[in-house]
Design goal:
The structure holds two protein chains of two kinds. Chain A is mostly beta strands. Chain A is built from no helices and twelve strands. In chain A, strands 2, 5, 6, 10, 11 and 12 form a six-stranded mixed sheet that branches. The mean pLDDT of chain A is 92. By secondary structure, chain B is mostly beta strands. In chain B, the strands form two sheets. In chain B, strands 2, 4, 5, 6, 9, 10 and 11 form a seven-stranded mixed sheet that branches. Chain B has a four-stranded antiparallel sheet with strand order 1-3-8-7, with no helix packed on it. The chains are: A mainly beta, B mainly beta. At the A-B interface, β5, β6 and β10 of A face β5, β9 and β10 of B.
């Protein structure tokens, strides 16, 4: 079963509007972390935002915020005031806690391709 | 500048010709990892290392080797590359046992003919 599900293969948004990218996850761990990364067409992987399972507040980083709903196991990324430079692939990833042992690997979704229209 | 570097960035090679992709980080991170990214399959972990001389298999280790002789370096070795190893490879590192972000190298695009 997929541990990270991103249901939107592709999204369009108008410049300056907000957009929400969906991510649901599956884990039996109580302690875990959720990450969002951006991958522009040049290929590098850019860290955007992190949410810990015990964090009570939703994470925010500039124009990025994470809508964390623990009971629903969702961690949606909200990008406010979209810019043309936001056009990229966006990946949701999870690091499990105790289940992972010492391996800090990230478990990845398949990504959402975001296109920002002028 | 804190960074993870990978070399080469692009490589086209032929089946069976041994190659090494280097990875180096300047952040004194204990943990390093290799991923490969394939369309429709996402990123999958190949190998990881908790510290010097400590390495272990990830999800797709077949056909790859790694070594960790120094803390900063974690090379990926393909002893006999095959076309199914054509992929985009990322090296990543992170610090501590907590939920820290993983810093990624710029990626290596490998094509095996």
């Amino acid at each position: 079963a997929q541990k990270i599900t991103q249901t939107q293969p592709g999204m369009f948004v108008q410049e300056k509007e907000a957009v929400t990218l969906d991510c649901t996850y599956d884990t039996s761990d109580q302690s875990y972390g959720l990450f969002w990364y951006k991958q522009p067409s040049s290929g590098e992987m850019i860290f955007l935002i992190y949410q810990g399972s015990y964090d009570e507040q939703n994470a925010t980083e500039g124009r990025y915020s994470l809508n964390f709903q623990k009971a629903r196991k969702s961690a949606n990324l909200v990008i406010s005031a979209s810019q043309l430079g936001d056009s990229a692939m966006y990946f949701c990833a999870m690091r499990e806690g105790f289940n992972a042992g010492n391996n800090r690997k990230l478990i990845w979704g398949l990504g959402t391709s975001l296109a920002v229209n002028p | 500048e804190a960074q993870v570097t990978q070399n080469p960035r692009y490589l086209i090679t032929v089946t069976g010709k041994k190659l090494t992709v280097t990875c180096s980080q300047n952040m004194n991170h204990e943990y390093m990892s290799w991923y490969r990214q394939d369309p429709g399959l996402g990123l999958r972990q190949i190998y990881y290392s908790m510290n010097v001389e400590v390495t272990d298999k990830g999800d797709v280790p077949e056909g790859y080797k790694v070594s960790r002789k120094e803390k900063r370096n974690f090379p990926l070795i393909l002893e006999s590359p095959s076309p199914n190893q054509t992929s985009l490879y990322f090296c990543a590192s992170s610090v501590g046992l907590g939920p820290y972000e993983q810093f990624f190298g710029p990626g290596t695009r490998l094509t095996v003919l």
